[in-house]
Each structure stands twice: as structure tokens, then as C-alpha cells.
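Checklist before submission:
- one chain only
- standard amino acids only
- sequence pasted in full

Submission:
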Amino acid sequence: MLDVCRWLTLEVKYLDPIVEFYREHLDVAVVSGTDDECALDVGDGCELRLRRPSGVPRGGLHTHYAFACPANVYDAWWAELEAEFELQEVEFGSMRSLYLYDPEGNCVEIAGAAADRPIDDPTLSGIFEVVFEVEELSPAESFYTDLGFEIVDRGENRRRTRLTSGGLDIELWEPHLGLADARGGVHVDVGIEAGDPEAAADAVAERVTKRESVGDGVRIRDPDGHYLTFVS
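Returned file contents:
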């Protein structure tokens, strides 16, 4: 069974400016770093990893992804960020999301999607959504439903599909501009908690383009070039 996002990796040309962006504007802490990669704590056991193009897997380019935040501190995030950025806002039923761009062109969403916390604690609560660009929806849908994701929504023109594992939503987009002119990420690298990493990889064994053991997990590459690492 698949669950929450443990990390998302973005590709960056230079570490210092984008690390400073996330530290200053999103108030996240650096948890580890090398000359080629830096990991930021974005809440609830999840990391945002920023990686220079020094090998594979590469981080994602122009990736649209979403942080959760406590619903009762969403307004505090808006007030904090609107002075510096031209924000866009979209309502999804009772949930509101704001959108801005980081210096590498990734579309960052913050959504009031997590349980309330004290109003003086406007922290992030992990990453709950990542958008993958795929060449064609139908085979990508089949791959991810066989992994254990459930389809919960489709675009009216069938250019996007939203799936969920319960703890992580993945949107599959054929190439197009979405909300806030965002694009789906290419060669995205994401870590996902799994009850049985080997079994998760076995479910799509005939369609993966690469598979390897890494630490306490299994890393696969999907047919569109995205890397998924299942960790226990």
C-alpha cells in the first residue's frame, strides 16, 4: 500500500539562490547538504530536495506541486507572501490554494488542506500533490492504477487525470498549461512511503524502464521517465 510523499526533488542550476528563496519566503530549515544537493524540511516528515544536474535521477523541471498547510493559517501565508509575489488563488470547495513561482520556474502551491494547528504556528505540512507530464494519459493511468493509485478526477478535455494513494495525489498531464499557467514536471524524482516497497515495484515490473535497490527501498523509472522510490 502506498501512502505519503517522503520527498520531492527539483533540479536547480545554482543551489544558493533557490535555497535562500525557500528559507526566506517559506520559512523552511535545511536538514542536509552537499555541493550538489540540499534537503529542506517541509513538514510532517517530508523533504524538498534541490539538486544540481550532476547525475541521475535528475530533479524535476518546471514542476507544479502543492504544500499542505493548516487550514486556519492559510490566511497568514497569503498575508506573508502577497507583499513579495503576484499570487493567484483558486478555491476547491472549502479548500483555498495560492500559487506562486520559485526562481527556477516551478509552480508552488500552498493549500489549506491539513488539520488546524495553533494560529501562531503557520508551518507547512508536507507535500500532498505532484504533477507529472506524460506523453499520453491512457497508458500512464494504467501504470499508476496498477501501482495502487485511484482515479478521482479527470479534466473535461481528458488532458489531465488526478489520482490518489490516500496520502499523496499525483496529477498526470499531457503537455499543456494548467492553473496559474503551470506545467507538469519532467523527469520528476519523488519518494513515496510504502508498506512493502518490493511488492509495489513488482506490481508494474513489466513496464518499468529501470529498477534498482536503494537503501531501505526500491527505485523505479516509469515509461515517461519519472523516478519513484518506494521506502518503508
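Reviewer check: The mean pLDDT is 94.
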